[in-house]
Amino acid sequence: MQNGHGVIFSDGELWKATRRYTLASLRDLGMGKKRIEGKIQEELQFLVELIKSFKDEAFPLKTLTLATTNVAYGIVFGDRFDYDDETFLTLLKHVDDVVVLLGEPQLQVYNVYPFLGFLLKPHKMILDTMEKTRVILREYLAAGKKSINENLLQNYYDYMLTKQQSEERSKDRNLFHDTNIVAAVFDLVLAGTETTGTTLQWAILLMMKYPDIQRQAREEIERVIGLERLPTCEDRKQLPFNNAIVHEVQRFASILQQFPRCTAVDTCFRGYFIPKGTPVIPSLTSVLYDKTQWETPTQFNPNHFLDAEGNFVKKDAFLPFTIGRRNCPGESLALMEIFLFFVGLLQRFTFCPPPGKTVSDLDLTPEVTFTLRPQAYSTCAVH
Ligand code: HEM
Question: For residue 30, what pLDDT is reported?
Answer without folding.
Answer: 86
